[in-house]
Write a structure and sequence with these properties.
By secondary structure, this protein is of the alpha/beta class. The protein is built from eleven helices and nine strands. The strands form two sheets. The protein has a seven-stranded parallel beta sheet with strand order 3-2-1-4-5-6-9, sandwiched between helices. The protein has a two-stranded parallel sheet with strand order 7-8. The structure holds NADP nicotinamide-adenine-dinucleotide phosphate. It is found in: Membrane.
């Protein structure tokens, strides 16, 4: 297999960093990785984790998905502008009642998570079409399939990504290009920490008491437990992503977390759409204790599955 060039966005931490390190460290040297980040001052962790691959199979470059000039500059510095595999990973989260969020904060989520992908593809897609080869891999989320309480705008941004990609995939097929949406559930990264801290600091004065209580005493109270129970690591997601990249016929959608699959399945089980909404409602508002117990049960199942695998 000839060496493939891979451009990954958002490599200063989390999934992007884990994926860049894994691909650049490939024993068969199948990939040349352009690991990009918006702020090069944050490159130290990646440099340390990447070790001797830097300058060999990895190059670190500046790229801000919210800035067209930065995207153009980065891609024009890649030999022949050739990107065989584009991994759109950069993303930001936002939680809380919408009445306590500003439109600017919401627009930043859409601008990064959705328009960031659009900007990148406007630059990369024409070259891929000309060559009639390329794989576009998008780190989406299970929240691109199903909304979750107090994640309204974040879920909307990932739904936008999924709708955009579903439309584009049909055209891509005509040009023999592959498109794959990677859909993780909770992943323990900086993202989880930043989102939780922002939630804890949020000014809730614009919300009524019932909504503010719901956010603090139900959502934030269970947040850590959900990540502890269902959370995967950035390395887990990197491993899944590499498998999809190496697949002969990469799937359009790939969920990384089997513990989460029963939850997303509800969506497809009822065309009216009521089943997942009612199930979440009951779990959150009527069965707070059962919710915690269910999480423990799910965790136990996951541990048993791991024991069997090992
Ligand atoms: N963690 C989860 O629970 C989870 C679950 C499902 C899906 N995801 C998705 O996974 C992806 C990666 O998230 P993560 O969990 O690895 O979080 P992370 O550690 O916070 O990484 C996010 C990366 O995106 C970068 N970024 C943000 N805005 C950017 C911009 N305008 N231009 C370029 N880079 C930008 C960040 O850079 P800075 O360091 O400069 O901020 C950081 O490198 C995101 O798309 C996220 O939505 C995460």
């Amino acid at each position: 297999m000839a060496q493939k060039t891979v451009l990954i966005t958002g490599c200063s931490s989390g999934i992007g960093m884990a994926l860049a390190v894994k691909m650049a460290g490939d024993e068969q040297k199948r990939f040349r990785v352009y690991a990009t980040m918006r702020n090069l001052d944050k490159k130290d962790h990646l440099v340390e984790a990447a070790g001797r691959t830097i300058g060999n199979t990895m190059e670190i470059m500046q790229l801000d998905v919210c800035n067209e000039d930065s995207i153009k500059m980065c891609i024009s510095n890649i030999p022949d502008r050739r990107i065989d595999i584009l991994v759109n990973n950069a993303g930001v989260g936002l939680i809380g009642p919408i009445e306590c969020q500003t439109i600017d904060e919401m627009q930043n989520v859409m601008d990064t998570n959705f328009f960031g992908l659009v900007r990148l593809l406007k630059e990369v897609l024409p070259d891929m079409k000309k060559r009639r080869s390329g794989h576009i891999v998008i780190i989406s989320s299970v929240m691109g399939i199903q909304g979750i309480l107090f994640n309204d705008v974040y879920a909307a941004s990932k739904f936008a990504v999924e709708g955009f990609c579903e439309s584009l995939a049909i055209q891509a097929l005509k040009f023999k290009l592959h498109l794959s949406l990677i859909e993780p559930g909770p992943v323990v990264t900086e993202f989880e920490r930043k989102v939780f801290e922002d939630g804890m600091k949020m000014d809730l004065s614009a919300a009524d008491k019932e909504t503010a209580d719901m956010f603090v005493n139900i959502y934030l109270k269970n947040y850590k437990q959900i990540f502890q129970t269902l959370g995967q690591s950035a390395e887990d997601i990197a491993e899944h992503t590499v498998k999809i990249i190496l697949a002969e016929n990469p799937p359009f959608r790939h969920q990384t977390n089997t513990l989460y699959t029963p939850i997303t399945t509800l969506k497809y089980a009822d065309p009216n759409g009521d089943l997942p909404i009612e199930t979440f409602y009951k779990l959150v508002f009527q069965h707070d204790k059962i919710f915690s117990a269910s999480l423990n049960f799910i965790k136990l199942q996951g541990e048993e599955q791991n024991d069997i695998k090992n």
